[in-house]
């Protein structure tokens, strides 16, 4: 089960993940190799060895969930430059239009930092960190 996540309960067997998400190269990302599960015998709750562990499936979900928003954030940053987002423009911006209202007046530098943070997290997961 760790190596083959299958199609999942929501995706019919005849539709493979590659067909469902044609832009994503699943062969390039081996999350099982990047995030191997290790068994620990943890009698001591304070043990440093027995901490939280990122599973391959969670890494896959996080990578997928962060890849597209990073691209959208960069695109929105280029369109907006330093302009604030008005209430009428909310839906025009895929990433920044969905954030809370307090962020709508942020400048281009701040938006680039947010986009870069999403990109960095995606890169960390891709590299097994």
Q: Please, could you describe this protein's structure?
A:
With 129 residues, this protein is mainly α. It has one domain (17-126). The chain is built from 4 helices and no strands. It has helices at 17-20, 31-34, 56-80, 108-126. Helix 3 runs antiparallel to helix 4. The longest helix is centred in the middle third of the chain and has 25 residues, at 56-80. It is elongated and about 55 Å long.
Key traits:
129 residues, mainly alpha, 4 helices, 40% helix
Helices and strands in order, then pairings?
Layout: H1 17-20, H2 31-34, H3 56-80, H4 108-126
Helix pairs in contact: 3-4
Estimate percent helicity.
Answer: 40-55%
Order of helices and strands: HHHH
Gyration radius over CA:
19 Å
Domains (count): 1
Rounded mean pLDDT score = 78
Q: How large is the share of residues in beta strands?
A: under 5%
Number of strands: 0
Low confidence ranges: none
Q: Tell the overall outline.
A: elongated
**Oligomer category:** single chain
Count of helical segments?
Answer: 4
Main sheet makeup: none
Distance between the termini: 22 Å
Task: Summarize the structure in short.
The protein has 129 residues and is mostly helical. The protein has four helices and no strands.
